[in-house]
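Project standup — Tuesday

K.O.: blocked on the structure for the chain from last sprint. Re-posting the sequence here as requested.
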Amino acid sequence: MNRKVLLNYIYTVIYQILLILLPIITTPYISRVLGVENIGKEAYAGTVVSYFVLFELMGLNLYGMREVAYVQQDEKKRSFIFYQLSFIRVCLFFVVAIVYGIFVILNHGIDKKLFWISGMALWTNLIDITWFFQGMEKFKLITIRNLLIHLLSVFAIFLGVKSRDDLYLYVAISTVGNLVAQLCLWPSLKSIIVRVKFTVRGLKKHFIKVWVMFIPTIFNTLYTKLDKIMLGTLATETEVGLYSQSERINNLLFGVIGAMSIVFMPNLANMLSSGNDKNAVGNTLKMNGKLIWAIGIPLTAGIMGISKVFTNVFFGAGYEKVEYLLYILGPVVLACGISNLYGGQYLIASDHQKEFNLSIAAGAILNICMNYFMIRQWQSIGAAVATLITEVFIAFIQAHMTKKYIQFSIKPDWYYIFAGVLIFGVTKYMDIVLEKNVIILVSQIIIGMIMYFFILYINNDIIFVKCIQEVKRRWRKNTCGK
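H.V.: unblocked you, prediction finished:
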């Protein structure tokens, strides 16, 4: 793993985590200021808009990122792809915006003002060019500019939203913040694209491939959202709340693993388009797999080890069941990491979209079937088990499909497993015998990290060594001014 890719991953992890953390920071304040009724209105409007956004984007972001990565060294080709995909994006925007406008105008049972403000998300995605910079592997630029805007949005919420009458202001701040974050990226385009003659030739091919890449998004959305709908139908709203909260924490952890696909897929796509042999690609995937074990094992062991005190401190009374849901959902992080390696990185980068789509579709069908039977018996526990089995199944299928095209091994080093067992044992012992408060929770996390880094250090782990070397290099640069 070269230094550029490692830094890109670090930038992306920071961004993904903060994207999840910032709403968590504002949620307690907003919930109290706006009240449950307004929060419900905002959530409903946001959910409806998200479905329109889904069809506005289709598979454009992922497809665009890959196509730009293929030709990132060719100024004219990458510029041509940018203009063509932007044209498709504009066409999709107008179609979806017209349908959305008709929906708002004809639907008399909604808060129209709220829906018009929320609908600004359609404009945000129209001008979104993050995919282009990701394809060019310029993650530092994306992270720094977007984070600054999102942080300013958080401050604006705390300063401006003071009462229940500020619902529209709250939604406006959120949507405008995202819009400004995208606008701030546009000036940087001048240095990496040039003017080229626009033609419609090739648009049909792009649109077909975008549609094909959209198919797994539909299935993924289906089974990641349908489990909560089925819980609400087959169980109770309380079970939905318990499952949603545990899933939110799991998504925070997955943000660290999921960042790998965002960073490594363009890198692999560029390697493949540049004619690198299978050994070079296989070695890169092997190193990426090592990183998944290095990060996924301690995250899984850690959340399972601190589940009891974490649930008590973070959620409070009435959420005790979340502890057991975290036991089950913890390994999902690792399973998703493995499927991201085989599917999100290799299958997509190598344009084996058919195999990727089949694996996601099979997983969605399996998940829906299991939820139907397991939720009836075990409610949220059943939904969590169905999610775990589904993610393991998808990882297995994608690994099998990948091995038809390339061979590489991603067996974890023994000391990763040893460290995971040690972290789980020590933190769980503290979980059981000590009081359940924030000091103990922080102590568990710090002790777990110290143990893990010590084990990596004494085993001279290559990823750990590279990270330390990079930190030292940057420290010397900042202190010496070189």
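K.O.: great, moving the ticket to review. The longest helix spans residues 3-57. The chain has a mean pLDDT of 84.
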